[in-house]
Specification:
The structure holds 2 protein chains of 2 kinds. Chain A has 5 helices and 5 strands; from the N terminus they run ββαβββαααα. By secondary structure, chain A is α+β, with helices and mostly antiparallel strands. Classes of the chains: A alpha+beta, B alpha+beta.
Amino acid sequence: MNKLSVNLRVNGRGYDLEVASNKTLLEVLRDQLNLPDTKYGCGTGECGACTVLIDGEVVNSCLTLAAAADGREIRTAVGLEKNGQLHPVQQAFIEETAVQCGYCIPGMVVKSVGLLEKNPDPSEEEIRHWLEGNICRCTGYEKIVDAVKSASKKMASAEVKAVG
Amino acid sequence: MSSRILTDFDLLVPETVPEALEMLNRLQDQVTVVSGGTDVLVAMKFGFDTPYGMSLAKLAGLNYLEFDPQQGLRVGARTTITQLLESPEVKQYYPAIWESAVNFATPQIRNTATLVGNLLRASPAGDGSCAVYALGGKLVFSNEAGEREVDIDDLWVGYATTARNKDELATELRIPIPAANSINAFKRMTRVNEDLAKLNVAVNLTMDGNVCTDARVAMGCVAATPVRLRQTEDLLKGAEINEESLKSLMATVSAEITPIDDQRSTAEYRKQVSGVMVKRAIEQARDRVTA
Protein backbone atom coordinates (compact mmCIF):
# COMPACT_ATOMS: atom_id res chain seq x y z
CA MET A 1 0.00 0.00 0.00
CA ASN A 2 1.45 3.36 -0.98
CA LYS A 3 1.67 6.60 0.94
CA LEU A 4 1.02 9.98 -0.60
CA SER A 5 2.36 13.41 0.29
CA VAL A 6 -0.43 15.87 0.86
CA ASN A 7 -0.86 19.42 2.06
CA LEU A 8 -4.01 19.97 4.05
CA ARG A 9 -5.15 23.35 5.32
CA VAL A 10 -7.18 22.63 8.43
CA ASN A 11 -8.80 25.42 10.42
CA GLY A 12 -6.45 27.95 8.84
CA ARG A 13 -3.25 26.04 9.50
CA GLY A 14 -1.23 24.18 6.86
CA TYR A 15 -0.01 20.61 7.37
CA ASP A 16 2.44 18.69 5.16
CA LEU A 17 1.70 15.03 5.72
CA GLU A 18 2.32 11.53 4.44
CA VAL A 19 -1.01 9.69 4.36
CA ALA A 20 -1.66 6.04 3.65
CA SER A 21 -3.62 5.57 0.42
CA ASN A 22 -6.64 4.04 2.15
CA LYS A 23 -6.98 6.61 4.94
CA THR A 24 -10.10 8.72 5.05
CA LEU A 25 -9.95 12.40 5.85
CA LEU A 26 -11.73 11.61 9.14
CA GLU A 27 -8.99 9.17 10.20
CA VAL A 28 -6.26 11.65 9.33
CA LEU A 29 -7.97 14.49 11.23
CA ARG A 30 -8.47 12.38 14.34
CA ASP A 31 -5.38 10.14 14.40
CA GLN A 32 -2.67 12.11 12.59
CA LEU A 33 -3.63 15.71 13.38
CA ASN A 34 -5.06 14.97 16.82
CA LEU A 35 -8.30 16.82 16.09
CA PRO A 36 -10.93 14.56 17.69
CA ASP A 37 -13.78 17.08 17.45
CA THR A 38 -14.95 15.48 14.19
CA LYS A 39 -16.72 12.25 15.14
CA TYR A 40 -16.97 8.76 13.72
CA GLY A 41 -20.58 7.62 13.65
CA CYS A 42 -21.55 5.14 10.96
CA GLY A 43 -18.61 5.22 8.57
CA THR A 44 -20.97 5.00 5.59
CA GLY A 45 -22.15 8.56 5.02
CA GLU A 46 -25.53 8.27 6.70
CA CYS A 47 -25.25 9.88 10.15
CA GLY A 48 -23.33 13.11 9.50
CA ALA A 49 -21.23 13.00 12.71
CA CYS A 50 -18.09 13.32 10.56
CA THR A 51 -19.28 16.41 8.62
CA VAL A 52 -16.59 18.95 7.75
CA LEU A 53 -16.47 21.90 5.37
CA ILE A 54 -14.17 21.47 2.38
CA ASP A 55 -13.76 24.74 0.46
CA GLY A 56 -17.03 25.87 2.09
CA GLU A 57 -19.06 22.77 1.13
CA VAL A 58 -20.37 20.25 3.67
CA VAL A 59 -18.88 16.80 3.11
CA ASN A 60 -18.76 13.45 4.93
CA SER A 61 -15.11 13.10 5.96
CA CYS A 62 -15.61 9.34 6.46
CA LEU A 63 -16.23 9.01 2.71
CA THR A 64 -13.43 11.33 1.59
CA LEU A 65 -10.00 9.90 0.88
CA ALA A 66 -7.44 12.03 2.69
CA ALA A 67 -5.26 12.06 -0.42
CA ALA A 68 -8.18 13.47 -2.41
CA ALA A 69 -8.34 16.45 -0.03
CA ASP A 70 -4.80 17.53 -0.94
CA GLY A 71 -4.58 21.30 -1.30
CA ARG A 72 -8.11 21.90 -0.04
CA GLU A 73 -9.31 24.18 2.75
CA ILE A 74 -10.90 22.18 5.56
CA ARG A 75 -12.85 23.53 8.52
CA THR A 76 -14.01 21.51 11.52
CA ALA A 77 -16.09 22.43 14.57
CA VAL A 78 -13.09 23.33 16.71
CA GLY A 79 -11.93 25.85 14.11
CA LEU A 80 -15.17 27.84 14.10
CA GLU A 81 -14.44 30.06 17.10
CA LYS A 82 -12.68 33.36 16.49
CA ASN A 83 -10.41 35.09 19.02
CA GLY A 84 -11.77 32.95 21.83
CA GLN A 85 -15.38 33.75 20.88
CA LEU A 86 -17.66 30.88 19.97
CA HIS A 87 -19.23 31.00 16.53
CA PRO A 88 -22.83 32.34 16.71
CA VAL A 89 -24.07 28.86 15.74
CA GLN A 90 -22.16 27.27 18.62
CA GLN A 91 -23.45 29.93 21.02
CA ALA A 92 -27.02 29.38 19.81
CA PHE A 93 -26.76 25.60 20.33
CA ILE A 94 -25.83 26.29 23.98
CA GLU A 95 -28.51 28.94 24.53
CA GLU A 96 -31.28 26.86 23.00
CA THR A 97 -30.11 23.75 24.93
CA ALA A 98 -29.86 21.90 21.65
CA VAL A 99 -27.22 19.57 23.10
CA GLN A 100 -27.87 16.43 25.06
CA CYS A 101 -25.23 13.70 24.74
CA GLY A 102 -23.28 15.91 22.33
CA TYR A 103 -21.90 13.27 19.99
CA CYS A 104 -23.69 14.55 16.88
CA ILE A 105 -23.17 18.21 17.74
CA PRO A 106 -19.85 18.98 16.00
CA GLY A 107 -21.37 17.62 12.78
CA MET A 108 -24.64 19.49 13.38
CA VAL A 109 -22.82 22.75 14.03
CA VAL A 110 -20.57 22.45 10.98
CA LYS A 111 -23.58 21.49 8.86
CA SER A 112 -25.54 24.52 10.12
CA VAL A 113 -22.62 26.86 9.44
CA GLY A 114 -22.50 25.42 5.91
CA LEU A 115 -26.16 26.36 5.47
CA LEU A 116 -26.01 29.88 6.91
CA GLU A 117 -22.94 30.81 4.88
CA LYS A 118 -24.91 30.08 1.70
CA ASN A 119 -28.40 30.98 2.86
CA PRO A 120 -28.30 33.46 5.78
CA ASP A 121 -32.09 33.51 6.26
CA PRO A 122 -33.41 29.98 5.73
CA SER A 123 -37.04 28.99 6.31
CA GLU A 124 -37.80 26.25 8.82
CA GLU A 125 -38.46 23.90 5.92
CA GLU A 126 -35.07 24.71 4.40
CA ILE A 127 -33.36 24.14 7.74
CA ARG A 128 -35.04 20.76 8.19
CA HIS A 129 -34.28 19.66 4.63
CA TRP A 130 -30.66 20.77 5.04
CA LEU A 131 -30.21 18.91 8.34
CA GLU A 132 -31.21 15.62 6.69
CA GLY A 133 -28.11 13.48 6.81
CA ASN A 134 -27.26 14.47 10.39
CA ILE A 135 -28.79 12.12 12.88
CA CYS A 136 -29.36 12.99 16.55
CA ARG A 137 -30.67 10.19 18.76
CA CYS A 138 -31.37 12.40 21.81
CA THR A 139 -33.17 15.63 21.08
CA GLY A 140 -35.90 15.07 18.55
CA TYR A 141 -34.35 17.90 16.50
CA GLU A 142 -36.72 20.67 17.70
CA LYS A 143 -34.08 22.47 19.75
CA ILE A 144 -31.50 22.03 17.02
CA VAL A 145 -33.82 23.68 14.49
CA ASP A 146 -34.51 26.46 17.03
CA ALA A 147 -30.75 26.98 17.46
CA VAL A 148 -30.21 27.36 13.72
CA LYS A 149 -33.07 29.88 13.50
CA SER A 150 -31.68 31.82 16.46
CA ALA A 151 -28.15 31.81 15.00
CA SER A 152 -29.51 33.06 11.70
CA LYS A 153 -31.15 36.05 13.46
CA LYS A 154 -28.07 36.81 15.53
CA MET A 155 -25.77 36.71 12.54
CA ALA A 156 -28.10 39.04 10.61
CA SER A 157 -28.20 41.59 13.44
CA ALA A 158 -24.40 41.36 13.89
CA GLU A 159 -24.05 42.13 10.21
CA VAL A 160 -26.32 45.18 10.52
CA LYS A 161 -24.23 46.44 13.45
CA ALA A 162 -21.01 45.91 11.54
CA VAL A 163 -22.36 47.81 8.55
CA GLY A 164 -24.09 50.51 10.64
CA MET B 1 -13.04 2.95 15.31
CA SER B 2 -15.37 0.33 13.96
CA SER B 3 -14.47 -2.42 11.56
CA ARG B 4 -15.72 -0.30 8.69
CA ILE B 5 -12.24 0.52 7.43
CA LEU B 6 -11.14 0.59 3.84
CA THR B 7 -9.34 -2.36 2.32
CA ASP B 8 -5.65 -1.89 1.41
CA PHE B 9 -5.00 -0.51 -2.05
CA ASP B 10 -2.50 1.66 -3.87
CA LEU B 11 -4.06 4.99 -4.78
CA LEU B 12 -3.52 6.53 -8.20
CA VAL B 13 -4.30 10.23 -8.57
CA PRO B 14 -4.15 11.19 -12.26
CA GLU B 15 -4.32 14.88 -13.13
CA THR B 16 -5.28 14.54 -16.80
CA VAL B 17 -7.63 12.27 -18.75
CA PRO B 18 -4.79 10.81 -20.91
CA GLU B 19 -2.90 9.97 -17.72
CA ALA B 20 -5.98 8.22 -16.31
CA LEU B 21 -6.54 6.30 -19.57
CA GLU B 22 -2.91 5.13 -19.61
CA MET B 23 -3.34 3.78 -16.07
CA LEU B 24 -6.59 2.01 -16.97
CA ASN B 25 -5.03 0.52 -20.11
CA ARG B 26 -2.10 -0.81 -18.07
CA LEU B 27 -4.02 -2.05 -15.02
CA GLN B 28 -7.48 -2.84 -16.45
CA ASP B 29 -9.83 -4.36 -13.88
CA GLN B 30 -7.24 -4.17 -11.11
CA VAL B 31 -8.41 -0.56 -10.69
CA THR B 32 -11.50 0.74 -8.91
CA VAL B 33 -12.34 4.23 -10.13
CA VAL B 34 -13.38 6.57 -7.30
CA SER B 35 -15.05 9.81 -8.39
CA GLY B 36 -17.44 11.13 -5.70
CA GLY B 37 -16.82 7.90 -3.83
CA THR B 38 -20.01 8.11 -1.80
CA ASP B 39 -21.13 4.63 -2.86
CA VAL B 40 -17.98 2.82 -4.01
CA LEU B 41 -16.05 3.69 -0.84
CA VAL B 42 -18.88 2.18 1.21
CA ALA B 43 -18.57 -1.00 -0.90
CA MET B 44 -14.81 -0.96 -0.27
CA LYS B 45 -15.43 -0.69 3.48
CA PHE B 46 -17.55 -3.83 3.23
CA GLY B 47 -14.83 -5.80 1.48
CA PHE B 48 -14.97 -4.94 -2.22
CA ASP B 49 -11.30 -5.16 -3.04
CA THR B 50 -9.01 -4.33 -5.98
CA PRO B 51 -5.22 -3.75 -5.84
CA TYR B 52 -5.58 -0.16 -7.04
CA GLY B 53 -7.95 2.72 -6.44
CA MET B 54 -7.97 5.66 -8.81
CA SER B 55 -9.20 8.97 -7.41
CA LEU B 56 -10.53 11.44 -9.96
CA ALA B 57 -10.32 14.28 -7.40
CA LYS B 58 -7.56 16.08 -9.28
CA LEU B 59 -8.78 15.37 -12.78
CA ALA B 60 -9.28 18.85 -14.19
CA GLY B 61 -12.00 19.84 -16.61
CA LEU B 62 -14.67 17.20 -16.12
CA ASN B 63 -17.02 19.03 -13.74
CA TYR B 64 -18.96 20.97 -16.36
CA LEU B 65 -22.67 21.26 -17.06
CA GLU B 66 -23.43 22.73 -20.48
CA PHE B 67 -26.85 23.31 -21.95
CA ASP B 68 -27.50 24.05 -25.61
CA PRO B 69 -31.11 24.59 -26.80
CA GLN B 70 -30.38 22.51 -29.93
CA GLN B 71 -28.00 19.86 -28.62
CA GLY B 72 -29.28 19.32 -25.11
CA LEU B 73 -27.35 18.80 -21.91
CA ARG B 74 -23.72 17.72 -21.49
CA VAL B 75 -22.83 16.55 -18.01
CA GLY B 76 -19.15 16.02 -17.20
CA ALA B 77 -18.14 12.87 -15.36
CA ARG B 78 -17.20 14.88 -12.24
CA THR B 79 -20.36 17.03 -12.14
CA THR B 80 -22.07 16.73 -8.77
CA ILE B 81 -25.72 16.42 -7.85
CA THR B 82 -25.50 19.88 -6.22
CA GLN B 83 -24.36 21.37 -9.54
CA LEU B 84 -27.47 19.92 -11.23
CA LEU B 85 -29.70 21.44 -8.54
CA GLU B 86 -28.14 24.87 -9.05
CA SER B 87 -28.81 24.85 -12.81
CA PRO B 88 -31.92 26.76 -13.97
CA GLU B 89 -31.79 24.90 -17.31
CA VAL B 90 -31.93 21.51 -15.59
CA LYS B 91 -34.92 22.69 -13.56
CA GLN B 92 -36.71 24.07 -16.63
CA TYR B 93 -36.00 21.43 -19.29
CA TYR B 94 -35.22 18.31 -17.25
CA PRO B 95 -37.43 18.54 -14.15
CA ALA B 96 -37.20 14.74 -13.78
CA ILE B 97 -33.45 15.09 -13.16
CA TRP B 98 -33.94 18.13 -10.93
CA GLU B 99 -36.58 16.34 -8.86
CA SER B 100 -34.31 13.31 -8.50
CA ALA B 101 -31.56 15.64 -7.25
CA VAL B 102 -33.64 17.51 -4.63
CA ASN B 103 -33.96 14.54 -2.32
CA PHE B 104 -30.83 12.70 -3.50
CA ALA B 105 -29.49 11.32 -0.19
CA THR B 106 -28.19 14.24 1.91
CA PRO B 107 -26.50 17.63 1.31
CA GLN B 108 -23.09 16.08 2.09
CA ILE B 109 -23.64 13.32 -0.46
CA ARG B 110 -25.10 15.74 -3.06
CA ASN B 111 -21.95 17.88 -2.76
CA THR B 112 -19.75 14.90 -3.56
CA ALA B 113 -21.70 12.32 -5.57
CA THR B 114 -21.81 12.64 -9.35
CA LEU B 115 -24.66 11.88 -11.76
CA VAL B 116 -22.33 9.84 -13.99
CA GLY B 117 -21.19 7.89 -10.93
CA ASN B 118 -24.82 7.19 -10.06
CA LEU B 119 -25.32 5.67 -13.52
CA LEU B 120 -22.08 3.66 -13.38
CA ARG B 121 -22.72 2.16 -9.96
CA ALA B 122 -25.68 0.54 -11.74
CA SER B 123 -27.79 0.23 -8.63
CA PRO B 124 -31.41 -0.63 -9.41
CA ALA B 125 -32.33 2.04 -6.83
CA GLY B 126 -30.32 4.92 -8.33
CA ASP B 127 -32.52 8.03 -8.47
CA GLY B 128 -30.33 9.75 -11.07
CA SER B 129 -30.29 6.57 -13.15
CA CYS B 130 -34.08 6.37 -13.14
CA ALA B 131 -34.52 10.00 -14.20
CA VAL B 132 -31.94 9.81 -16.99
CA TYR B 133 -33.36 6.50 -18.23
CA ALA B 134 -36.76 8.12 -18.87
CA LEU B 135 -35.17 11.06 -20.69
CA GLY B 136 -32.82 8.95 -22.77
CA GLY B 137 -29.19 9.79 -23.36
CA LYS B 138 -25.75 8.54 -24.17
CA LEU B 139 -22.75 7.94 -21.99
CA VAL B 140 -19.34 8.65 -23.52
CA PHE B 141 -16.61 6.14 -22.69
CA SER B 142 -12.99 6.92 -23.52
CA ASN B 143 -9.96 4.69 -23.76
CA GLU B 144 -6.53 5.23 -25.26
CA ALA B 145 -7.81 4.33 -28.74
CA GLY B 146 -10.63 6.89 -28.74
CA GLU B 147 -14.18 7.23 -27.50
CA ARG B 148 -17.56 5.60 -28.03
CA GLU B 149 -21.12 6.40 -27.05
CA VAL B 150 -23.29 3.89 -25.23
CA ASP B 151 -27.04 4.47 -25.28
CA ILE B 152 -28.57 4.52 -21.80
CA ASP B 153 -30.83 1.68 -23.02
CA ASP B 154 -27.71 -0.51 -23.36
CA LEU B 155 -25.80 0.67 -20.28
CA TRP B 156 -26.97 -1.70 -17.55
CA VAL B 157 -26.29 -5.33 -18.38
CA GLY B 158 -27.03 -6.86 -14.97
CA TYR B 159 -27.09 -6.17 -11.28
CA ALA B 160 -24.39 -3.55 -10.53
CA THR B 161 -22.86 -4.24 -13.95
CA THR B 162 -22.48 -1.89 -16.92
CA ALA B 163 -21.29 -2.07 -20.52
CA ARG B 164 -18.09 -0.23 -19.53
CA ASN B 165 -14.94 -2.01 -20.72
CA LYS B 166 -12.20 -2.31 -18.15
CA ASP B 167 -9.84 0.07 -19.95
CA GLU B 168 -12.51 2.77 -20.27
CA LEU B 169 -13.27 5.91 -18.33
CA ALA B 170 -16.73 7.46 -18.57
CA THR B 171 -16.13 11.10 -19.43
CA GLU B 172 -19.50 12.63 -20.31
CA LEU B 173 -23.25 12.09 -20.26
CA ARG B 174 -25.24 13.54 -23.16
CA ILE B 175 -28.96 14.03 -22.72
CA PRO B 176 -31.03 15.19 -25.70
CA ILE B 177 -33.23 18.27 -25.57
CA PRO B 178 -36.74 17.10 -24.66
CA ALA B 179 -39.16 17.08 -27.59
CA ALA B 180 -41.43 20.09 -28.02
CA ASN B 181 -44.65 19.63 -26.02
CA SER B 182 -43.06 16.98 -23.86
CA ILE B 183 -43.35 16.75 -20.09
CA ASN B 184 -41.15 14.83 -17.68
CA ALA B 185 -41.20 14.12 -13.97
CA PHE B 186 -39.66 11.95 -11.27
CA LYS B 187 -41.15 10.52 -8.08
CA ARG B 188 -39.74 8.34 -5.37
CA MET B 189 -41.09 6.55 -2.36
CA THR B 190 -39.09 6.22 0.85
CA ARG B 191 -39.62 5.98 4.59
CA VAL B 192 -37.74 9.24 5.22
CA ASN B 193 -36.33 11.60 2.58
CA GLU B 194 -32.68 10.65 2.87
CA ASP B 195 -33.28 6.90 2.54
CA LEU B 196 -32.56 5.00 -0.62
CA ALA B 197 -35.78 4.66 -2.59
CA LYS B 198 -38.03 1.68 -2.04
CA LEU B 199 -39.43 2.52 -5.46
CA ASN B 200 -38.72 5.29 -7.94
CA VAL B 201 -40.25 6.21 -11.26
CA ALA B 202 -39.65 8.74 -14.02
CA VAL B 203 -41.82 9.58 -17.02
CA ASN B 204 -41.18 11.51 -20.21
CA LEU B 205 -44.29 12.02 -22.34
CA THR B 206 -44.70 13.84 -25.63
CA MET B 207 -48.17 15.37 -25.74
CA ASP B 208 -50.51 16.56 -28.47
CA GLY B 209 -53.06 18.43 -26.41
CA ASN B 210 -54.24 15.83 -23.95
CA VAL B 211 -53.14 12.89 -26.09
CA CYS B 212 -49.82 11.20 -25.43
CA THR B 213 -47.95 10.55 -28.69
CA ASP B 214 -44.70 9.15 -27.29
CA ALA B 215 -43.65 7.89 -23.88
CA ARG B 216 -40.69 6.64 -21.91
CA VAL B 217 -41.34 5.30 -18.42
CA ALA B 218 -38.49 4.14 -16.17
CA MET B 219 -38.75 2.46 -12.78
CA GLY B 220 -36.20 1.52 -10.15
CA CYS B 221 -36.02 -0.95 -7.23
CA VAL B 222 -38.19 -3.45 -9.10
CA ALA B 223 -35.61 -5.62 -10.93
CA ALA B 224 -31.87 -6.26 -11.05
CA THR B 225 -31.35 -3.03 -13.00
CA PRO B 226 -33.45 0.07 -13.55
CA VAL B 227 -36.09 -0.92 -16.11
CA ARG B 228 -38.22 0.66 -18.79
CA LEU B 229 -41.88 -0.26 -18.67
CA ARG B 230 -42.36 -1.00 -22.36
CA GLN B 231 -45.95 -2.21 -22.17
CA THR B 232 -46.96 0.83 -20.16
CA GLU B 233 -45.24 3.02 -22.75
CA ASP B 234 -47.17 1.27 -25.53
CA LEU B 235 -50.45 1.76 -23.68
CA LEU B 236 -49.69 5.43 -23.22
CA LYS B 237 -48.87 6.09 -26.87
CA GLY B 238 -52.00 7.34 -28.59
CA ALA B 239 -53.99 7.43 -25.36
CA GLU B 240 -55.76 10.45 -23.95
CA ILE B 241 -54.49 11.20 -20.47
CA ASN B 242 -57.49 11.35 -18.16
CA GLU B 243 -58.69 9.81 -14.91
CA GLU B 244 -60.06 6.76 -16.69
CA SER B 245 -56.95 5.98 -18.75
CA LEU B 246 -54.68 6.53 -15.77
CA LYS B 247 -56.79 4.16 -13.73
CA SER B 248 -56.58 1.37 -16.29
CA LEU B 249 -52.84 2.03 -16.66
CA MET B 250 -52.39 1.61 -12.92
CA ALA B 251 -53.74 -1.90 -13.12
CA THR B 252 -51.20 -3.18 -15.64
CA VAL B 253 -47.90 -1.74 -14.35
CA SER B 254 -47.34 -4.40 -11.71
CA ALA B 255 -47.29 -7.18 -14.32
CA GLU B 256 -44.17 -5.63 -15.86
CA ILE B 257 -41.94 -5.69 -12.80
CA THR B 258 -40.11 -8.35 -10.81
CA PRO B 259 -39.33 -6.81 -7.41
CA ILE B 260 -37.83 -8.65 -4.44
CA ASP B 261 -38.16 -8.43 -0.66
CA ASP B 262 -35.30 -6.48 0.90
CA GLN B 263 -34.65 -4.30 3.94
CA ARG B 264 -36.49 -1.31 2.46
CA SER B 265 -39.68 -2.95 1.26
CA THR B 266 -41.35 -6.11 0.07
CA ALA B 267 -42.06 -7.42 -3.41
CA GLU B 268 -45.78 -7.42 -2.65
CA TYR B 269 -45.83 -3.79 -1.54
CA ARG B 270 -43.76 -2.66 -4.50
CA LYS B 271 -46.17 -4.41 -6.86
CA GLN B 272 -49.12 -2.74 -5.16
CA VAL B 273 -47.77 0.81 -5.31
CA SER B 274 -46.00 0.68 -8.70
CA GLY B 275 -49.08 1.66 -10.69
CA VAL B 276 -49.98 4.44 -8.29
CA MET B 277 -46.47 5.85 -8.59
CA VAL B 278 -46.66 5.90 -12.41
CA LYS B 279 -50.01 7.69 -12.19
CA ARG B 280 -48.66 10.25 -9.73
CA ALA B 281 -45.57 10.92 -11.82
CA ILE B 282 -47.74 11.57 -14.88
CA GLU B 283 -50.02 13.84 -12.85
CA GLN B 284 -47.01 15.69 -11.47
CA ALA B 285 -45.68 16.34 -14.98
CA ARG B 286 -49.12 17.42 -16.22
CA ASP B 287 -49.89 19.65 -13.23
CA ARG B 288 -46.55 21.42 -13.58
CA VAL B 289 -47.43 22.38 -17.16
CA THR B 290 -50.88 23.68 -16.27
CA ALA B 291 -49.47 25.59 -13.29
